[in-house]
Amino acid sequence: MENKKFYITTPIYYPNDNLHLGHTYTTIVADVLKRFKRIQGFDAFLVTGTDEHGQKIQEAAAAAGKQPKEYVDEIVASAKKLWKSLDIEYDKFIRSTDPSHEKAVAGIFTKLYEKGEIYKDIYKGHYCTPCEAFWTDTQLEEGKCPDCGREVDYREEESYFFRLSKYRDKLLEHYENHPEYILPVSRKNEMVNNFLKDGLEDLSVSRSNFDWGVKVPFDEKHVIYVWIDALSCYLTALGYGSDNEELFEKFWPANVHLMAKEIIRFHVIIWPALLMALDLPLPEQTFAHGWILFDDDKMSKSKGNIVYAEPIIERYGVDALKYFVLREFTFGQDGSFTNEKFLQRLNSDLANDLGNLISRTIQMVVKYNAGIVPGVGEIETVDGDLIDKAVNTVGAVEAEMEKLSFSTALEEIWKLIRRTNKYIDETTPWILGKEGNTERLNTVLYNLIESIRIIAQLIEPFMPHTSMKINEQLGIAPMGWNSTSEFGLYLPGTEVSRGENLFQRLDLEEEKEILAKLNQELVDSRKAEKMSLENAKETEASEAKTEITIDDFEKCEFKVAEVLDCNFHPNADKLLVFKLKIGDEVRQIVSGIRKHYEPEELIGKKVIAITNLKPVVLRGVESNGMLLSAANGEDLTLLTTMADIESGAEIS
Ligand code: MSP
Question: Is 442 in the pocket of ligand 1 (CB under 6 A)?
Answer without folding.
Answer: no
